[in-house]
Specification:
Number of helices: 10
Number of strands: 12
Structural class: alpha/beta
Strand order of the largest sheet: 6-11-10-9-8-7
Distance between the termini: 31 Å
Helix content: 25-40%
Shape: elongated
Mean pLDDT: 96
Amino acid sequence: MVLGSGLPPSVGHLIELALEEDLGRGDVTSEAIFDEEQVARAVILGKSDLVLSGTDVAAAVFRAVSPAITVSPLLRDGAAVRPGTEVLRLEGPVRALLSAERTALNFLQRLSGVATMARAFTVAVAGTGARVVDTRKTAPGFRFLDKRAVRHGGGANHRADLGSGVLIKDNHVAAAGGVAAAIRRARAAAPHTLRLEVEVTTLDELREALGEDAEVILLDNMSPQGVREAVALLPPRGDRRRPLIEVSGGITLETVRAYAEAGADLISTGALTHSVRAADLSLEIERT
């Protein structure tokens, strides 16, 4: 399968699965109406305000169905799209265009939805110094694409997987017997190249984490006022002992700025990927 530059083989496998799901038994409607030789031109249009992501994936879907399809991207991923804006132009066998339509749009709509949500969150905290980051709450198999879409929207990425960072969560703390015990065990065995982050839910747990010199502290499910109280316990800015502060848990577009203004360095929210609304795009065949 011909993939765009920068797309890993896992995306090719994902496209193959999606096409097998939708096209495994053929497209009986298009095959009944059109000859193999009939060609057409088409355009993919944005139908609402959105931030674009996944044009290279959509192009790979069309080319996987038929190498005879010519795909011409008109905008780059990360572009702001207004209703009625042309995103991609296509030309090729009409059967193949119609057979690939739904799968290509499924990728493009989901990923643009993620990018659009990420842009909304980043705009909401503009000027505060806080960064909005994603989580691992991605659609199975979509981790690379979902996280890339977050970047297209102006957000940043948290861990890519369980091996890319030490993050001591509440269940680690419970099983280890406390915040301090979990940090000591992790620091003794984890690679020295990875920063150590620990999740806390109370100010007492925060004090434990500060006593163990945790490099990043995740304040989980605290109110903005609770975050202010937690930040007040930290060493002053500029002190090398001051950890980065991440906040997470139930943060919405309506509340995210309050958390940023409370002193968070990082704001992580699964809403960027786990409950995103698909962006509105459609494919239109041009009448001949």
